[in-house]
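OP here, attaching both records as promised.
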Amino acid sequence: MSSTPAKKPAAPAPQRLRALWPDIKAIVEPRKGSLAIGLLLIVISRLAGMVLPASMRYLVDDIIGKHNQDMLVPLVAAVVGATILQGISSFTLTQLLSKAAQRLIAELRQKVQSHVARLPISYFDTHKSGELVSRIMNDVEGVRNLVGTGLVELLGGILTAFLALFVLLNISPMLTGMALAVVLSFGFVLQKAFSTLRPIFRERGKISAEVTGRLTESLGGVRVVKGYHAEKREEEVFGRGVKRILDNVLSSLTGMSIMSLSATVLLGIVGALVMFIGSKQIFAGQMTLGGFVTFTAFLATLVAPIFQIVNIGTQLTEAFAGLERTREILSVQPEDEDPNRTVALPVINGEIKFNHVDFEYEEGKPVLEDVSFESKPGTVTALVGSSGSGKSTIIGLIAAFHKPTNGTVTVDGVDLSTAKLSSYRTQIGVVLQESFLFDGSIKENIAFSRPGATDEEILNACRIARVDEFCERFAEGYGTIVGERGVRLSGGQRQRVSIARAILADPRILILDEATSSLDSESEAMIQQGLSHLMQGRTTFVIAHRLSTIRRSDQILVVEGGRIVERGTHAELYGMEGRYHDLYTRQHGLEANLFLAPGEGDAIPEPVASGNPKGSSGAPPLRMLS
């Protein structure tokens, strides 16, 4: 019976802060000018805010107590002027730093998205798209408190507290000492609370990403959900996720409530002590009434920043948790930053070789074993076999989505694991079984493979792929919006758009993964001509379950259990009466294939010569797939 691995204990707070310091520095340093101005503004604001409590002593003792009305107007004018100055400095501070914080969030989101888009396919295999969306959009949100008013307000609160402490000590050292003892005890409570809250906030980001991921999947697969009447089940799954978020929020609210309770008790205890001891000192003549009023006002100035520190400290705790998660994803190496990928490929001929290739997605679980074959430029290689045999993995290696565990995959003699992806992937085209379209126009989806293509080039690709036949019936023509994942088009229409996109890309290597599976027989027959045009002079790899579509391939590889068990042309493999013969006759029956037997009229042509990669004169023309 397997046991759940023990949860890795969180690193101590100082250690985590040290780990985050380079990231914090990278965020703060470019904005140190704005932060310095913000700090100056907060100092002006806090000093101006102290004029009112400081004036209370003069108002009570010198103006009211001594009936000195001449000082009243100047004092009130000073208070009004200080208040206006405080308001202006606070407004300027918010405008300066809040906008800087929002710009930071935008930059970080762009940086994280750019990084995620360059991660290897294996990362996306283990992380839900909705989870990644949440991490891009939400995890960076709290970081605004590092550059926004939060951090500066915290520094301003600390400054105010020290200034207030200085004034209080001058008025009554005894009262100040007692108040300070209570405040320090509250500081111990704060430290404990923040150490408890930080992992809760970090866990909240993780749970939120998971719930968002499942919700995204559920909405994306709404037709499957409705088709199986599974709305209630999805509702229950989402409900459990929401309950996890709620439990997390309630846990954090408990910690925050404890801090608020402690702060309230602190305020009450300090207030009671000031009332009792201050009254005694006034009765004993050790303090004037004005001094007592001023002490009370400055004590509020001392305590208010403490409440503020509680609020801002919580925000900073959330910011650090989000920064940790952002740092975590940014630490994953993008595939195009692999130090082994140093070879920039020129325009390739498209000769692909597999040399004793092994591959594992998980260690100890081989998917491919000792796979070797060669595909000459301008030829068609078909991969057939049962589901899970390893065909798509071979295609993934050709597209450089993965690296072999052992052996090499070479293109024109260059080890593909050393090639710069930017120089290779611009020379391959892919048409998948599930045609993915973006929520844009038909024209935008076709131009995705070559954004700089002219309208004429796009229209030509549409004519070859027979997109024009259905597109011109739409009121908006090529400007018709296809909807999310192309939902407003039929499966065959989406596939034709995908084929047009590949035609426009003009690739040297072409991958067709069940490219006509979504088409009816009539549409397939029409598009085969377009595919034949697309395949001319290109190294083409075809995965097809309809074996009739790959009869005229230059070579057919039969893949079973991660190995190539048979290879040859259709006629050769059919004559062997092995695995390919079994697969083919199951689909079509013996009689349907007699006309393809060697010696009969429609014999299988010889493969295109490897010396003519471009399909130029002298080489036989590339045949249609069916």
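Record two, same layout:
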Amino acid sequence: MQLFVPGRLCLLGEHSDWAGTYCTLNPAIEPGYALVAGTRQGLYARAKRHADALIFRPALNDGSRPDPIRLPLSLTTLLSVAQQGGFASYVAGTAYQLLRRYAIAGLDIDNYRTDLPIQKGLSSSAAVCVLTVRAFNCLYDLRLSRRDEMELAYLGERTTPSQCGRLDQACAFGSRPVLMTFEGEQLVLTPLKLTRPLYLIVVDLGGYKDTQKILRDLHRSYPVAANAQQRQVQRYLGAINAGLVQQAAAALQQGDAQRLGELMTQAQAEFDRALVPACPDQLTAPKLHRLLTHPALQPYCCGGKGVGSQGDGTAQLVARDRDSQARAIALIQQDFPDMQALEVTLMPTAKIKKAVIPAAGFGTRLFPATKAVKKELLPIIDSDGRAKPVILKIVEEAVSAGIEEIGIVVQKDSLAEFQAFFQAPPSPQLWAKLSPENQAYSQYLQALGERIAFIFQSAQEGFGHAVFCARDWVNHEPFLLLLGDHVYRSQTAQSCAAQLVDRFEQCDCSVIGLTTMSVDIIHKAGCVTGTWQTPQTLLEISELCEKPSLDYAQANLRVPGLSDSEFLGVFGQYALTPAIFEQLELEISNNLRQRGEFQLTTCLERLRAAEGMLGYRVKGDYFDVGMPQFYQQTLQAFYRP
């Protein structure tokens, strides 16, 4: 199993994670808020099962490979190693928490590459904990959600001498920026959409800070403030921080680096006024302030602040652009030789520009009609009264989501039929008989045809195999996958596919369209379960199952908020990262067939385990045309003037 866990950068809101938990003891304390983003740097690993030991083979960001950590799966030994501190403690503490809860055996984790700087405020220790949880989760099928992984990684690190808060483990959610809300034991995560690159500089100040003393001194202000200074600490970590973080979240989504830098500078000034008096020997931070106020840096930076527990540990700066980032780093290395400056660039989610539509099946369930015409070319009557082949409606669905290129997977012997429809003009005789309106529509069809590429599936070996045939054409980009025998109708002004693509670009992970299915048809469809991120709308998927039995679905696939006769089934639309092709290749190269064919669902389940996956409950309806009774129902139900 190939795994990647990024680092974590807290843009704003440090200390608010633990401060917000005190509201259970004092209702006057406000929730904590933090703006967190995963980095593109992180830990790369390969993991496999081991009979009886936990082996962790680390790699440092300088390319060196320290000796492997080898630990027996003993609760006593793991706890002892965790409490000693040091790198091995994070692996041991996390394994200890897992072994207490699950029947697991050993694991061999080869962290073969690390490009994440260590001890630079990027939560490298949390990344190690998350990597350990994720490896066990994937290889022992623990079916943990990303939230579950985050919680166990947090408990694992807290088993060590570390006093980290919950925001460190936000690296479990990948590289997308997240707004985190801490209220008592409740943690709410709101994914944010980064619209432009954000060029940051993380600076190791080369100083010293005592994190444990900082935390001890700040905790004295909780749960009840005894004086004005302690009330000031609570106010900063409560109302003041909340306002700054909310404004920064808006600036980030607008791509406004200037405003984000200004808010960081303001946050540092407020921090100095409110928190430095609570721990002056650690938080006065002369090296930090010399850097932040250095005149030569001002033309290149929009602002900045301290990172983590603050003090003279690490700083972060917002550069104006890529060139300014490089110039500022060179300047820091020149003017502050005892400091180390690192480039950290947060990139926006890749936009989905391509869609794949498999249309290479035999259509055996619609025989003998499919002996004369491909099922994707069977007509339906659209809401505008036009008779359209099914494939046209699917192509139009993709275009409605902003898709620029469409790859249709076909058999070679049916290529001419599809090309004739999309890319060949009508014969002169037919053209002369068309009304002006239909002549214009014919030109519209040919314009659509310019967006379409045809991809061959040489052997019909299942839905997963058809998708795999599009790998080279997709070319390492995220893509929209639409079934070739489904048409869709939105219940809103936004098409179903556009809803899904928007969620992908907001969340930066694979998203599957979901719909409510009754108990009597779930055995015919893909089914999912998980935990709601947004009630009744966005689900963090913890399991996908293809055509489950009713007994299995009732025992394992229930979703909170649905009745006993309802489940969440796959809608027939997928927004996927290109990593799905790695899973498909693994399945095909090892001949892992289901019911004689290569399926997609098993690969989606492995992708979910490796990267995380969301399900979006589409505001719309799907219509299946792949079977006679469903095709008849579609003809009756789809046309709605």
